[in-house]
Amino acid sequence: MAQYFEVHPDNPQPRLLKQAAALLEQGGIVAVPTDSSYALACHLDDKAAADRLRQIRGVDEKHHLTLLCRDLSELANYARVDNKQYRLLKSATPGPYTFILEATREVPRRVSHPQRKTIGLRVPGHRVLQELLALHRAPLLATTLIPPHETEAMNDAQEIRRRFEKQVAGVIDSGACPSEPTTVIDLTPMGTGQEAVVVRVGRGELGPLGL
Fold first, then answer.
1. Which of 20, 49, 95, 116, by CA, is between 20 and 30 Å from 210?
2. How many C-beta neighbours within 10 Å does residue 15 have?
3. Residue 186: which H helix or E strand, with range?
């Protein structure tokens, strides 16, 4: 049975977020609010948790999972970027964007795309998720919470609890999120002098990024 944490969206209670962080440390999957929709998150270095994450979503190893990072200071450990890529990242973070980047050797092979050796990276602007990442002290592995055989991302914590309470360890409720997923941008072509590729248009606006 999933633990249910009702937290204030602007002043989240540290006691509750510490309990949620403990679930992640123990290998649990936690449904977390973001600035686009809810996501499923787990410990980066836990293979069994990553496998369950994909199982709940109904996706295979070719589906890009995303690293949720507190800020860009964690970037160098997991992705290779040049100055042009970094400037674009800096202009868009924190925010509702997911960027596909070339993965470093620090990224577990089971996490990166098996053929392209790339990783999705995101710096969310949601206060509650930022506080959770600070308590966890490391990036989280995540995927947008879209139920199998459906196309809409979930944004209601009580509905998530009802549908997934036997599959996740915890649900953090800080009120409804937007129901739109992130905008996904592939920055890897920029490494060879080409333009970034917009993979999915979502909540993040393209205009401010010059795309």
1. 116
2. 9
3. strand 183-186
User: What CATH number is given to the structural domain containing 7?
Assistant: 3.90.870.10
Q: Alpha carbon of 29 to those of 26, 47, 196: distances in Å?
A: 9, 12, 32
Q: Which domain holds residue 66?
A: 3-209
Give the count of domains, the chain.
Answer: 1
| Spatial distance between the Cα atoms of 126 and 191, rounded to a whole number of angstroms | 29
| Tokens, residue 79 | 């992705």
Phi and psi torsions of 40, nearest 5°: -100, 135
User: CA 77, 211, 208, 84: dihedral to nearest 10 degrees?
Assistant: 40
Name the one residue in this structure whose structure tokens are 């996904």: 184
What's the CA gap between 162 and 103, in Å, rounded? Answer: 36
CA distance 31 to 157: 8
Q: Half-sphere exposure of 131 toward its Cβ, with a 13 Å CA cutoff?
A: 19
pLDDT along the chain (211 residues), means of 10: 93 96 96 94 91 90 85 87 93 94 76 71 95 94 92 91 95 89 92 91 88 80
